[in-house]
Amino acid sequence: MKKIIVFTGQVASGKGTAAAFFVQKYGAKVFRFSTMLRDILDRLYLTQSRENMQDISMNLRGRFGQDLMAKVIAHDVERADAKLVIVDGARRPEDIEHLKRLDGFTLIAVSARPEVRFERMHTREENPDDHSKTWEEFLKEEGAETEVLIPRLMNEADFTVDNNGDRESLEKQLEEIYAKITNS
Q: Are 83 and 111 in contact (CB under 8 A)?
């Protein structure tokens, strides 16, 4: 049976690193909520900034339903030809409603302190504006409409990993969770 692991967590908590672990170790297929937003921004020749992605997300969901992106991801997951599928970046309860209906679903929260996440955001430079963000801007973004429900969703998780330490610690926790969900 296909296993579906959905990661939730605040910006730069380590969701992408956790997803990459499962790709490298188990050949997982990964879907990210942000991919569809990046695709739209690229097509419109707009910068892939966090602000632009938040605006596109808000507008699409406002016009076509709060679960629009969740429906897209759920369809992608269902059609994926892989035994292990990872969904990176669930932010609100609506994001997982369609996925929860699929067999093999597990929600994992990735947690890290704000100071750790701020430093990681600067070093990873996932978005063009990440390296220049100030602490105040980082904290302000935590209050954006697209971010405020993440803690609530994290509380619904089947498992939580503490990603304040090194990569080895994160991977050990992920291995333990994987063993539990696969009964191995």
A: no
